[in-house]
Design a protein that fits this description.
- The chain folds into three domains: 3-65, no CATH class; 202-269 and 478-772, no CATH class; 277-477, Four Helix Bundle (Hemerythrin (Met), subunit A) (Up-down Bundle).
- It has 24 helices and 17 strands.
- The strands form four sheets. It has a ten-stranded mixed sheet, with helices on both faces.
- α7 runs antiparallel to α10 (394-422), α12 crosses α14 (536-550) and α21 packs antiparallel against α22.
- It is elongated, with a radius of gyration of 36 Å.
- The two termini are 42 Å apart.
- The relative contact order is 0.11.
Length: 780
């Protein structure tokens, strides 16, 4: 058969086309069918008998596959239903997972392309490429800003509630309040601007990456997805999240990125003890307990003295029992190692700071000569012996003295009760009643003094813990510009991670091994960077390194959604900067099938790694005349973390598919990282392979995720077709050029800059690895 002609029959019913098949320029036969019947058929393929022109004899049959095409309006926008251009025969998932409530919630503004490529055995691969925006681009930054605002408001309230402090410590309190108030104002302003945008806004163009009010929003964030259907098999999906490297373009990179800025601040800052959020919480609880128990102890002690005048041993015993219970609760609350360690640290800081000075944000200057008697976090009349060496056992003696003084009171009441029994038949005199009170009074006074001393030290210690925790979370993090930069970069990385995780979870809800992997070893997030180590991109890479590393403070939890509506399936962010939890709702029918651990709220930790290989002309300059040590160090550290994650996976889930090949892949990755080869993109390829092998989230970035990222994701797609789906090697280059010239990434270029040309010049491309060069006519 040389060819075929497909046209409408010359009849009134133009819905019935005819197919004419020619053989050596002669008609072989024809058949006719109704388009309506073809489209209504549940079968993706339909067979038709071929008949001679006379319509008498059958000369064969032909198989017809339907292709549902996408229609665009004159302004190149998709219709409301956004019907993707795909072959129905490829995508049974259109009616289930592909059109699931979770996918509808997390993806929007989809653009699809369909290809047909030949395999090594001369069969056909049907490939669907899809690029989508996500509402998470704006919804997660809004949530993060709201969470940070509330966290700083809570911290301000926390330090304001502390008791009166000495001038030095009150100055530190003002430092915390002023820092928090500044950030609250900045973040509230940014959040107000974001709230002004349309609720349907899902895209930040590369041209907007320096806008201040979009500082927390990922640049050009998209999901890039490919479905491959081989002959006789169902579709297989591959996903990459693409977004501009998480960096603060608004503040720019004159002084470097976060890694350098934080390093400079650490070198100039004074080291001090830091307390975790859990320890600060314990300190607040202890302060609250002491504040409640101290007046109760004093109240029962006063009542004990009053009852002693009645010479009623029974009532005296009842009050004593109440005093004993409350005092024991008081002592138990104080027996916390956190109090002892904080008191020791206070003493050490007092010795260290006695020769220094500090100017607080409220203008107060504390000189070393003035700190003596003022450096401690309570008033001058507080109990602290500054003229002696601090004894670690001193705190144990403080609360032990409370218990001993209580024992003395108990012993005295026992003696008084014995005397009453001896004089039960007599009438007690006023002198005897006074004697009882006189004997109890000094013991009660001693108890009060011991309680006051213990309370003073405990309050001082816990105030120190809370204030140090607040300082560590604000002032010691560096200047406000660094803190805001770090939060903004983290926000961009977080949005991309959550999008990737939700897509991965949607695909794996019916995979028991994947679900078990989530709650046992967590999820791997493999970031691929294409930034150079030259000029401003060094600062971007320094930002990205810190932003990706900060994702380790994130954990996921799966929750049951109220309904299947998109707004009920969007993730919810909670927690503080010390640790965030992203709650991902799934439909009730899916939630019921989850492992019990995940249904019970088991947290899914994140293991982020970042591999970067610069590929452009600036990287050539860096490798010849500059410095690539940042990239080398980063790749080495990520290789170590990746090995650790894979080792845990092999240890806990040895029977999971694919884990047996990990040692060989990791060895290859290690050799590639250590080779120091220029523009060694094999590092990226192997890291991506490992990520897919362990069900990880793949993310790719360059400066704007527009040009270099397009070269990377199209290359990755064609490599997957060749290695996993037997794409004909002779057709590899043509498939790669087709995806780059006509695929989704060209649409991405157009929506960012308004034209369909990658931003490369011919001279620049000479420095690119060959597989990262676009076809002629697609750049300029």
């Amino acid at each position: 058969m040389r060819g075929a002609y497909f046209g409408a029959a010359e009849a009134e019913d133009t819905t019935t086309p005819c197919l004419f098949l020619l053989f050596q320029r002669r008609f072989l036969g024809f058949t006719s069918f109704s388009i309506r019947d073809l489209l209504r058929s549940k079968e993706p393929h339909t067979s038709f008998n071929l008949r001679t022109m006379e319509g008498v004899n059958e000369v064969g049959e032909v198989n017809m596959s339907r292709l549902q095409m996408e229609w665009q309006s004159e302004d190149n926008t998709l219709p409301g239903h956004k019907c993707p251009a795909l072959c129905d025969s490829l995508h049974t998932s259109v009616h289930d997972k592909e059109n699931s409530p979770m996918m509808r919630a997390v993806l929007c503004a989809q653009v699809s392309k369909v290809y047909r490529f030949q395999t090594e055995d001369q069969r056909w691969l049907l490939v669907r490429e899809q690029m989508s925006e996500t509402p998470l681009s704006f919804s997660l930054p809004r949530q993060l800003l709201s969470t940070l605002i509330q966290e700083h408001k809570d911290r301000v309230q926390e330090v304001k509630e502390l008791a009166d402090l000495s001038p030095h410590w009150d100055g530190l309190r003002h430092d915390v309040i002023n820092r928090c108030s500044h950030l609250i104002g900045c973040y509230q302003e940014v959040l107000t601007e974001l709230d002004k945008l349309s609720a349907s806004c899902c895209f930040k163009a590369s041209s907007s990456k320096s806008e201040r009010h979009l500082q927390f929003v990922s640049t050009n964030l998209h999901s890039q997805r490919m479905e491959v259907t081989s002959p006789g098999s169902t579709g297989v999906w591959y996903e990459v999240i693409t977004f501009g490297a998480p960096a603060d373009h608004h503040q720019a990179f004159k002084h470097g990125g976060l890694k350098r800025l934080l390093g400079k601040h650490a070198n100039h800052s004074h080291s001090s003890v830091t307390y975790s959020q859990e320890e600060s919480s314990r300190a607040r609880d202890l302060l609250s307990s002491v504040a409640q128990l101290q007046p109760q102890v004093f109240g029962f002690a006063e009542e004990l003295l009053s009852i002693s005048l009645e010479l009623n041993a029974a009532r005296l015993r009842l009050v004593l029992d109440s005093l004993t219970r409350q005092t024991e609760r008081f002592v138990h609350a104080l027996k916390d190692e956190l109090v002892k360690s904080a008191l020791l640290e206070i003493h050490q800081q007092h010795v260290t700071d006695s020769n220094g000075s500090h100017v607080h944000s409220n203008g107060l200057t504390c000189e070393g000569s003035q700190l003596d008697g003022e450096a401690l976090p309570w008033q001058r009349d507080g109990v602290w012996r500054r003229d002696t060496e601090y004894d670690e056992e001193e705190w144990d003696m403080a609360w032990a003295n409370v218990a001993k003084s209580l024992n003395c009171i108990v012993a005295m009441v026992d003696r008084l009760q014995g005397r009453e029994e001896q004089h039960q038949k007599g009438t007690p005199s006023d002198q005897e009643a006074t004697a009882w009170q006189e004997q109890l009074l000094p013991l009660v006074v001693t108890l009060r003094d011991c309680v006051r001393e213990a309370v003073g030290k405990a309050q001082a210690a816990m105030t120190f813990v809370i204030l140090q925790g607040a300082l560590a979370a604000t002032v010691t993090q560096g200047p406000a510009s660094i803190v805001q930069r770090r939060h903004a970069v983290f926000s961009q990385a977080l949005s991309a991670l959550v999008c990737g995780f939700m897509l991965k979870l949607n695909r794996g809800l019916d995979d028991p091994d994947f679900l078990q992997q989530l709650h046992t070893v967590g999820i791997l997030a493999q970031f691929e960077g294409l930034l150079s180590t030259y000029g401003d991109e060094v600062g971007m890479l320094e930002d990205m390194e810190v932003g990706v590393a900060d994702l380790s403070r994130v954990a996921f939890a799966i929750t049951e959604a109220k309904t299947d509506e998109p707004h009920d399936l969007l993730p919810r962010l909670c927690g503080t900067w010390a640790g965030f939890v992203v709650e991902v709702p799934v439909p009730p029918e899916n939630f019921r099938l989850l492992p019990q651990e995940l249904k019970d709220g088991s947290l899914i930790r994140v293991e982020p790694v970042l591999f970067n290989i610069g590929i452009n002309q600036h990287q050539s300059l860096a490798e010849r005349f500059g410095d690539s040590s940042l990239q080398e160090r980063m790749n080495e550290q990520s290789c170590v973390r990746l090995k650790t994650y894979c080792s845990a996976l092999r240890e806990r889930l040895p029977d999971m598919a694919g884990v047996q090949t990990l040692p060989e892949l990791l060895s290859s990755l290690n050799r590639s990282v250590e080779s120091r080869k220029r523009k060694n993109v094999e590092v990226l390829w192997i890291a991506a392979t490992v990520c897919r092998q362990v069900n990880g989230v793949r993310l790719t970035s360059c400066k704007s995720a527009k040009d270099r990222t397009a070269m990377s994701v199209t290359l990755e797609q064609c490599l997957l077709l060749r290695e996993r789906h037997a794409l004909n090697r002779q057709h590899f280059s043509s498939a790669l050029d087709t995806m780059r010239r006509d695929g989704c990434r060209m649409d991405n270029v157009q929506k960012n800059v308004g034209n369909r040309k990658f931003a490369f010049s011919g001279v620049q491309l000479l420095t690119f690895p060959k597989l990262y060069r676009p076809p002629d006519g697609s750049y300029g």
